Amino acid sequence: MKIYFLLPDLSAGGAERVSITIARLLHKEGHDVEFINFGYRKGEMLDWIEPEFKMTCLECGRVLNAIPKLMAFMKSHPNSIYFSSREHVSIVGMIAAKKTERQIVVRIPNMPKNKLSKGITGIKMIIIKTINRWLLKSAKFVIAQNTEMRNQLLEYYHLQDEKVVAINNPIDIDYVKSSAEGSVDPFDASKVNFLNVCNIAYSKGIDVLEKAWPKVKSEIPNACMNIVGRNTSEYAKELVSKANELEDFTFWGFQSNPYPYLKHCDVFVLPSRMEGFPNVVLEAQCFNRPVASTTCVAVIKEIVQEGKNGYYCDIEDSEALADCMIKAAKLKNIENKYNLFDKDLLLNCFK
Q1: How, if at all, do strands 2-7 and 32-37 pair?
Q2: pLDDT digits (tens, 9 = 90+) for 15-73
Q3: Rounded-to-integer distance, Cα 347 and Cα 141, Å
Q4: What is the mean pLDDT of residues 226-246?
Q5: Of the given ranges (22-36, 106-120, 129-143), which has the lowest mean pLDDT?
Q6: How far apart are CA 253 and CA 38, in angstroms?
Q7: What is the pLDDT of residues 180-202, one digit of tens each?
Q8: In terms of C-beta density within 10 A (0-12 exposed, 13-18 middle, 19 or more buried), how is residue 161 classed?
Q9: Edge to edge, what strands does the sheet with 141-144 contain?
Q10: Which of 150, 191, 227, 335 has its CB 3.0 to 4.6 Å from that of 144, i.e. a possible disulfide?
Q11: Got the DSSP string for 210-228?
Q12: Please, what sign has the CA dihedral across residues 48, 54, 58, 64?
């Protein structure tokens, strides 16, 4: 049976990177995997997908406009399962699958009770959650990124217990390491380089990190903070502007390959207010980087072993975050052994 992965477009984000990792894993296990892109054949992910997978582009300007074309595609491909990891794409996928009697597996990227989104984004999330109350019951499986999220999904959407599975996101360690192999150090080697990788949004806590930075800088004079990720939103531009007042606080913008930055940094920092599952922390740990993190999701306390591979603190606490960063910079001989990904549980979703 063929598995089709649904994408809104070819813009790169955390959910899309997880989708590609899952696609690679399923392909290695013998599954026939292809991608369906609702948008056009352009974007950062084009070179990530097409060398490995066949892709169909529906060429729709908006995600909702893809429903008729996706339904037609599903009708002409009867022996197939569909997968989505973005909420608005999942809604379109579930509507089309329901109408054509096809199976779809949906991965939830955010905590259902997340109230951190503001403005227009917040309104969109309310609409999505309302629609999900009706549609999620029709999915073959609903994948939560951790046990905490699974419990919220069961409570919030009143789903059947056996339909919701908690599967930690997989990390393709070989791919991560090979993507940084032979890379040139992008940082100033005379500095202690702290790194965060994210597409900047309120939930990512970069404003908390900016408040923490003066204390870190006073304790580690040669410290440098590096932010890699998309920073083109109005909110992100405000933070970039505020950072001009800070010493050695650098925004690198979007990088198609962030792994050289993860390999060569001295400390990885996760100041988030909320995460579904902290993939980028595990990717940093592939290179044995120490971590300073907030407890933005419960699993952080399992991933980060204080005094061994990093330190953690409560969200919103800039003073405590600074202390974690300072202590993490002193850690040496890091070894990371965390792995809670259940491959068999994932494969069972596509039987």
Answers
A1: parallel
A2: 888 899 999 999 999 999 999 999 999 998 998 898 899 999 999 999 999 999 999 99
A3: 12
A4: 94
A5: 106-120
A6: 25
A7: 999 999 999 999 999 999 999 99
A8: exposed
A9: 55-57, 32-37, 2-7, 80-84, 103-107, 141-144, 164-166
A10: 150
A11: HHHHHHHHHHSTTEEEEEE
A12: negative
Phi-psi region of 196 (alpha: psi -120 to 50; beta: other; left: phi over 0): beta
Does the reported pTM lie above 0.85? Answer: no
Please count the other Cβ atoms lying within 10 Å of the Cβ belonging to residue 125.
19
On whether the 174-328 domain is CATH 3.40.50.2000, my answer is: yes
CA pair distance 36, 34, nearest whole angstrom: 7
CA distance 312 to 307: 10
**Could you tell me the two tokens for 264?**
């060569």
Q: DSSP letter string over 143-194?
A: EESSHHHHHHHHHHH---GGGEEE-PPP--HHHHHHHHTTPPP-S-TTSEEE
Number of Cβ within 10 Å of residue 51's Cβ equals 7
2-166 CATH choice from 3.30.565.10, 3.40.50.1820, 3.30.465.10, 3.40.50.2000: 3.40.50.2000
Strands 164-166 and 192-197, sheet pairing: unpaired
Phi-psi region of 184 (alpha: psi -120 to 50; beta: other; left: phi over 0): beta
Question: Between 341 and 202, whose confidence is greater?
Answer: 202
- Residue 162: φ, ψ to 5°: -75, -15
